[in-house]
Write the structure tokens for this entry.
Amino acid sequence: MFQIEIDGRECEADQGSTILEVARRNGINIPTLCHHDGLTPYGACRLCIVEVTQRGRSRLESSCTRPAEDGMVIRTNTEQIRECRALIAELLLARCPSSARIQAISQELGVTKTRFSPLNEDCILCGLCVRACQDAIGASAISFMNRGMERKVSTPFDIDSDVCVGCGACAQVCPTGAIKIEDVGDRRYVRYFNTELELLRCSECGRPFTTKRRKTQLAAKQPLPDDLLCLCQTCRRKRLASSLRTYVR
Ligand code: SF4
Ligand code: FES
């Protein structure tokens, strides 16, 4: 354990914690957009910048990626930082003007309109979907492609992914709502990634509830009996409750 100073307060930090984590543990709010507690930090949006002073030198750094170090002095809300965050918000707003989340976060930073021409994109390249697919699901079905203006998130060669399990984690974490999961009959469509999967029906109630590939992936990871994996959450809960009742009777 060691001490760092954030906005004039002495805060305890441990090896490996980021500045953002220490600040949050101490109730100090720093805006973030591309950060998710369960995923590897990536430092894409730069909204979480703070001023870090160490050995007499000050720099602006992203607090979600910067590990805390003994004796650091951090300031999270100077005029320069507010101006930088406002500029970033303007750029994000120009990139994705119709995203409700971008509008909301910009407003929180005092930005209601942008001086830049609208690009009308739906993706801010935050990489949350890529990290969720890789870190949380272990599928690595999508990744960043191309460079510069052409940079985007996609499946290899932009075609139907044969490793996507259709879990929907990418859509859940996407801050702009670019990715949508659509179930039609026995098919699940992840159109943003040109991917289509077969749905599995619950063996009890007959409702489609997951994809066949997701079930296969879970079966390989979890020691659950196959008949439980073929049940939707509601039927699985009912089945477990009734087994428990029989057991305690
Ligand atoms: S699709 Fe969504 S989650 Fe993925 S990089 Fe773009 S904005 Fe982020
Ligand atoms: S939250 Fe730190 S760079 Fe996006």
Notes: Residues 128-248 form one domain. The chain is about 30% helix and 20% strand.
